Fold this sequence. Notes:
Order of helices and strands: HHHHH
Helix content: over 70%
Low-confidence stretches: none
CATH class of the domain at 12-36 and 78-171: Mainly Alpha
Structural class: mainly alpha
Number of strands: 0
Distance between the termini: 42 Å
Largest sheet: none
Amino acid sequence: MSQIPPSKRSKSDLKAQSFCYEIRKRITAELAATFGYSQKRMDAHIKKITAWMPEDQRKEAAAHLLKVEEDFDFWFIQQERIRILTFCSDISCHMRAANTIWPEYWSEFCERRLEWDRAMECCNKLQDELQYIAETLPADKNKYMRIVLDIEALFKMIKSLRQADNRFKKHLKDAPGGDMV
């Protein structure tokens, strides 16, 4: 058994992978709940937009706007579900790919590092997409905060794993800039 207390141990590759899957599950649940879409917020938005209109025109305009907004939101949610799920799966795929490379040569080290970079890039894309969704849909932005913070924590875990890979450098069979085929 290790003499290092659990609180002092660094995250292992598999803990980061498991954390990634936890985030995916939560995001999938949120996707199933249509990103926290709120009819109450939509009604308030429509009321705000039509507040300047005379009473006799307001009801008809509100009904039309509600239909247009709901159509857009339905289409938007469908499109974003695909993008979000793609980014989520790409993070875990790149992490798994990095974990399958045990570098003996510089090129393998670079490929492993590139997979970590791609996983971090997908974390950033996922955060950006969630931010855009939160700003576009009539939804509770606070629902996204915990997920975004967890994605940031995952990003940091991946970055730490990437940095820890420097331990391989001294054992590589070829040096950078050397005779590589």
